[in-house]
């Protein structure tokens, strides 16, 4: 994360919307989730079931597009969770492969 002018942490890379069903694991807990946006350095998940992982916790995320990746929880709001992927060569390769082969930008169906 980089610092903004207001001394707040901000994202390094832009996020793109998506909808990918996933599972997230923290210690002995597992929750169903949906990946709702993604960037090369992190993603946001909408949890279908509760998961008690605080900011700074290491979690594992698995889905058909990314495989299994590890990430650090950066924020939590109600049933949403934002994570930063661990910067390993394996994870970086998986994220690159996702954007190259699987990612399709999801746009809202309804407009105002």
Fold and architecture overview:
The protein has 112 residues and is mostly beta strands. The protein has one domain (2-102): predicted glycosyltransferase like domains (Thrombin, subunit H, Beta Barrel), CATH 2.40.10.220. The protein has one helix at 89-102, and strands spanning 2-3, 9-10, 16-26, 29-38, 42-47, 58-63, 67-77, 80-85. The strands form two sheets. A six-stranded antiparallel barrel has the order 3-4-5-8-7-6. A hairpin with a 2-residue loop joins strand 3 and strand 4. The longest helix has 14 residues, at 89-102. It is globular. The N and C termini lie far apart (33 Å). The mean pLDDT is 84.
Keywords:
globular; mainly beta; six-stranded antiparallel β-barrel; 48% strand; two-stranded antiparallel sheet; 1 helix
Low-confidence stretches: none
Tally of helical runs:
1
How many domains comprise the coordinates?
Answer: 1
Q: Quick check: average pLDDT?
A: 84
Note the gap between the termini. Answer: 33 Å
How helical, in percent, are the residues? 10-25%
Largest sheet entry: 6 strands, antiparallel, barrel
Structural class: mainly beta
Broad shape? globular
The whole-angstrom Rg is 14 Å
Order of helices and strands: EEEEEEEEH
Q: Report the top-level CATH class.
A: Mainly Beta
Name the strands of the widest sheet in spatial order. Answer: 3-4-5-8-7-6
Q: Tell me the fraction of residues in β-strands, as a range.
A: over 45%
Total count of strands: 8
CATH architecture: Beta Barrel
Find the CATH topology: Thrombin, subunit H
**CATH superfamily placement:** predicted glycosyltransferase like domains
